TrEMBL record:
<protein>
    <submittedName>
        <fullName>PhoX family phosphatase</fullName>
    </submittedName>
</protein>
<dbReference type="InterPro" id="IPR008557">
    <property type="entry name" value="PhoX"/>
</dbReference>
<dbReference type="InterPro" id="IPR006311">
    <property type="entry name" value="TAT_signal"/>
</dbReference>
<dbReference type="Pfam" id="PF05787">
    <property type="entry name" value="PhoX"/>
</dbReference>
<dbReference type="InterPro" id="IPR011042">
    <property type="entry name" value="6-blade_b-propeller_TolB-like"/>
</dbReference>
Length: 578
């Protein structure tokens, strides 16, 4: 390994080979433990998981949700914090074939209620005893679901006319990636929220703004509107405006309402990565759609002063969208009512209007189209910013270097004077993902070929953890150039040398996502999402055979595949990855 100016090399494990088996593999000398699969009671005394999926909606609301995604570990008890804490994690969406005993041919109100309860966020208190992590009884344990009462804050207030709907504001849906703040709260981000809404009213047509967000009569196929008018676009037209936001949750206050922070814009938020510069809060967020944009929010003044004044640092500030020039420079363009094209004369009523229609505002100022921006991570050693561009059709600019781009890449930028509040930056491409057998521009080999990078996070030592989400229409298929890449994976990069090594390969059909660490970095938590999802390479699962692709992690012929958190430690008790 390359020397790091006398420092020990960052990467100290042997790379794991790719595979397409229904198993999860890690390097020699590492141990794994499956924790909190879907359906686990969030308190040990709670309702037990039933492997035929017959738990009711009310039981699901007391159990860990489905399709684990972004996650953070909040240590508890001072020095105890390496073996006790709150694990807070998102549940992105539901697989209705697996969620209900009889699948989803018929949608009922009870099924909608259970699906809503399987979304959102879980807060579980966990502790390590005798080397094993387990869920503890806790007054802080909590589920936030698609039905939990919420507040709105920032320029789009709860009483805004666009948010007036049949019921009080409630719930968060399609909780993809996440963030956390310097003041100890968790951020959960609403991504493909348009999928939950639809209508059977043939007169209904999407507005221009709705069309820009992909809102359609059929939605994403969940068909909740057939049994619950809350999700009917014609009957309850404003409900959908309550989604598309970053939502703040205080994990230590189980009775506090989650708050939708509207100043951060309304997009298909992948995640929300918070850093600070000159005392101000800076929050980066990607809009994961082919051709959509990267945003950042810069708080007004010191976040500590804002908090001392009783204000949220996420309610007062400026939202920007990124423009990447072909010469390696870039600019942050403000999305502020009255500035540039965002004027009353051009049809922008006020800042709330700009935020409710964030995508159109970004179109108007001339943002740069990207290949599906997913997670964003800030290097703790030098404040450089990295963003995964998972894949896409390829756009007409240097930051989108392949057309099409089936494998994705990671872009990196340095803000002017390393100040993350700056409005200009310089960028380069950190790595092109893919398989050199199909694309000679790829500089990877059997120790690290990967595709469709999605999750991305730095640990405190500066290792860059890369998590992949090859879709199940491509996974392991030669016709997609993915036959050598294997199942989805977790890799680790040294950002200084560019070295990348494969650390983990997941089971079939699953995405690897949601990475978190204990403060001593001796325990790593990672999520395995949607094992058993319909995968072209393995045939379609059906209600009669939900195990067609994968039966991880229980391998119970009577059970079904379940998303779960995997706990990874070193047998010798060392720092994970070192
Ligand atoms: Fe939910 Fe873009 O991943
Ligand atoms: Ca993702
Ligand atoms: Ca993805
Ligand atoms: Ca996902």
């Amino acid at each position: 390994p390359a020397s790091r100016g006398g420092r020990r090399p960052l990467l100290g494990f042997d790379p794991v080979p790719t595979h397409s088996d229904d198993t999860l593999t890690v390097p020699e000398g590492y141990r794994t433990q499956v924790l909190i699969p879907w359906g686990t009671p969030i308190r040990p005394s709670g309702p037990r998981w039933r492997k035929d999926a017959s738990n009711s909606a009310a039981e699901q609301a007391e159990q860990v949700g489905m399709n684990h995604d972004g996650m953070h570990f909040f240590p508890l008890g001072g020095r105890e914090g390496n073996r006790r804490g709150l694990l807070v994690l998102n549940h992105e969406y539901v697989d209705q074939q697996l969620l209900f005993p009889d699948g989803d041919d018929e949608i009922t109100a009870e099924k909608v209620a259970k699906a809503v309860a399987a979304h959102g966020v879980s807060v579980v208190e966990i502790e390590r005893r005798d080397g094993t992590w387990r869920v503890a009884e806790s007054r802080r344990a909590r589920r936030v679901t698609g039905d939990t009462p919420v507040d709105f804050s920032g320029p789009v207030r709860a009483n805004h006319p666009s948010l007036r709907a049949a019921d009080a504001p409630a719930g968060t849906l399609n909780n993809c990636s996440n963030g956390y703040t310097p003041w100890g709260t968790y951020l959960t981000c609403e991504e493909n929220w348009n999928n939950y809404f639809g209508t059977e009213d043939s007169d209904w047509q999407p507005t221009t703004s709705q069309a820009r967000y992909g809102v359609s009569r059929t939605g994403g196929g969940y068909r909740w509107h057939e049994a619950d008018s809350r999700f009917d676009l014609a009957a309850n037209p404003n409900e959908i405006n309550r989604f598309g936001w970053v939502v703040e949750i205080d994990p230590t206050k189980p009775d506090a309402k989650p708050v939708k922070r509207t100043a951060l814009g309304r997009i298909k938020h992948e995640g929300c990565t918070v850093t600070e510069s000159r005392g101000r809060v800076v929050a980066y967020t990607g809009d994961d759609q082919d051709g959509d944009y990267i945003y950042k929010f810069v708080g007004d003044g010191s976040w500590r002063v804002q908090r001392a004044l009783g204000r949220s640092p996420l309610d007062h500030g400026t939202l920007y969208v990124a423009r990447f020039e072909d010469d390696g420079t870039g600019e942050w363009l403000p999305l502020v009512h009255g500035r540039g094209p965002l004027t009353r004369a051009n049809g922008w009523a006020d800042q709330a209007d700009v935020l409710l229609r964030t995508r159109e505002a970004a179109d108007a100022v001339g943002a740069t189209r990207m290949d599906r921006p997913e997670w964003i991570a800030v290097n703790p050693r030098n404040q450089d910013v990295y963003c995964t561009l998972t894949n896409g059709s390829g756009w007409n600019s240097a930051v989108s270097p392949r057309k099409p781009n089936p494998y994705g890449h990671i872009v990196r930028w340095t803000e002017h004077r390393r100040d993350n509040t700056a409005t200009t930056f310089e960028w380069d491409i950190f790595v092109l993902a893919g398989d050199p057998e199909y694309d000679p521009s790829v500089e990877l080999d059997e120790t690290n070929i990967f595709g469709s990078p999605d999750g991305l996070a730095f640990d405190d030592d500066g290792r860059l953890w890369i998590l992949t989400d090859v879709s199940n229409s491509s996974q392991n298929l030669a016709s997609r150039g993915y036959d050598n890449i294997g199942n989805n994976q977790l890799l680790v990069a040294d950002p200084d040398t560019g070295e990348i090594r494969r650390f983990l390969v997941g089971p079939r059909g699953a995405e690897i996502t949601g990475v978190a660490f204990t403060p001593d970095q001796k325990t790593l938590f990672v999520n395995v999402q949607h094992p058993g999802e319909a995968t072209a390479a393995y045939g379609e699962p059906t209600p009669d055979n939900p195990r067609a692709v994968s039966n991880w992690p229980d391998f119970d012929p009577e059970g079904r595949p379940r998303s779960a958190t995997v706990v990874i430690t070193r047998a010798d008790g060392g720092v994970v990855g070192a």
